[in-house]
Each structure stands twice: as structure tokens, then as C-alpha cells.
Design a protein that fits this description.
Strand order of the largest sheet: 2-1-4-3
Largest sheet: 4 strands, antiparallel
Structural class: alpha+beta
Radius of gyration: 18 Å
Helix content: 40-55%
Oligomer: single chain
Length: 225
């Protein structure tokens, strides 16, 4: 993506280091995530998966500490509370969002890096531009980038991290809607809208293939941090 000063973050002093917020995407079956978090008695496979998730949360805690980020509740503790179904220790804390992401990760595909953005709020301007040309509200960027997880979590407190989901069956609708208006958008928005159209066209094909193979990779997951 090209940096227009509104969207993708710049790099400082020639360093290969993004400045801003990273947007990632992956695809999978959200039912496996919800089942792991709500299981009364875990199966052997769920126990194996939970071990992986717990290790991922511990690594996230270590990474955040190295970055000088100190959370009121650790990501590992947030995971335990989510799985146990106990009231959260904090109503405002990003640890629960981080924990949810680590549950999603082993259930979903490898992440696709969508770029770095100086201001996530820029996507609301993209929303307005697409809506002006008749793109349906359910496939506007804010409808899936900032929709939140499919179950209630304590609010992260700050603007980041943000979780979003898009039903995979809507991918073709999004691709077609964006492709129809691409040549009419302001230049500031063309590249990003085109990138989403390209990705969703691919995801629509992948969803159709998964269904033929008996898989239910029905959710596209977005992570903004």
C-alpha cells in the first residue's frame, strides 16, 4: 500500500520499522474458537489446543513486558478467566482481546499482513467514500474491521487492539461492490479498496473450495494493533 499520509504508516529515518497500527487478517472456523472457550469438559483435541493457546498467551505476556507494556491483568490470566467463565478481573483491559486472538490463531490460517496505518480512523473516511457510491453498509470497512469478537469481552479500554470479523459468505459481495466503484473513488482510497476487493475475491474462492471439501471456514478475522 502507498502511504498517502492518511492510511499506511511511514517509516522513520530510513529504518524498516512501521510507525502506526498493524492490520492483519486470517480465515477459519470460529465455532472451534467458541467451543474451546465455552466447553464444560474439553475433549483430548481441545486439551491439546488449549496447551498451544496457553503457551501463546505466555509468549504474548513476555513480548508485552519487553515492550514496556504493563497490563492490569496478564494475557495468561485473561485466558483462564475466559475459559473458566468467571467474571473478568477488569471490565476495561486489552488482555482479554489479546487472549482471544491467541485462541483464534491456531484455529485459523496464517495471517495476511494488510499494512500499517497511522490512524485507524482513516477507514471511516473510506467508509463514507464507498457509501457515497452505493456500497452496502454490511461490507463497508468499519462494519468488519471494528465489529468486535463474536462473544462479549471486556473492552480493551484504549482504541487498540481492535477485533473485527466478516462472514466468509459476504466476501464475494464485498469484492463485487468494491470492484464496481473502484474507478470512481477518490485517488486517496483507490489502492486500499482495490486491495480489499482482490483479497475478498480470493477468500470467496477459498470459502467455496472449503465447503466442497466439507470444511466450514466461515469467518474472516481482522486484528488491528
Amino acid at each position: 500500500m502507498v502511504d498517502h499520509g492518511h492510511g499506511q504508516g511511514r517509516r522513520q529515518n530510513g529504518e524498516d520499522r512501521p510507525v502506526g497500527y498493524c492490520l492483519e487478517m486470517s480465515t477459519g472456523d470460529m465455532r472451534g474458537v467458541v467451543r474451546l472457550l465455552t466447553a464444560v469438559e474439553r475433549t483430548r483435541e481441545q486439551e491439546r489446543m488449549f496447551t498451544i493457546v496457553r503457551e501463546r498467551c505466555e509468549k504474548t505476556d513476555a513480548r508485552l513486558r519487553e515492550q514496556g507494556v504493563h497490563l492490569d491483568v496478564s494475557v495468561s490470566r485473561a485466558l483462564e478467566e475466559l475459559v473458566e467463565g468467571t467474571p473478568p478481573s477488569r471490565e476495561l483491559c486489552p488482555a482479554y482481546s489479546y487472549a482471544f486472538r491467541e485462541v483464534v490463531a491456531p484455529h485459523f490460517s496464517d495471517t495476511t499482513d494488510l499494512g500499517v496505518w497511522q490512524r485507524p480512523s482513516w477507514f471511516y473516511a473510506l467508509d463514507s467514500e464507498l457509501a457515497r457510491h452505493g456500497v452496502p453498509s454490511e461490507v463497508l470497512p468499519a462494519a468488519f474491521l471494528f465489529s468486535g469478537p463474536p462473544l462479549r469481552l471486556p473492552h480493551p479500554g484504549d482504541s487498540m487492539p481492535q477485533i473485527g470479523v466478516l462472514p466468509a459468505q459476504r466476501a464475494v459481495v464485498l469484492a463485487e461492490a468494491y470492484e464496481r466503484v473502484l474507478d470512481r473513488l477518490d485517488r486517496e482510497f483507490t489502492e486500499t479498496a482495490g486491495r480489499f476487493a482482490e483479497l475478498m475475491r480470493f477468500e470467496a474462492q477459498e470459502w467455496a473450495t472449503a465447503r466442497r471439501l466439507g470444511r466450514n471456514d466461515d469467518t474472516i478475522f481482522f486484528w488491528f494493533s
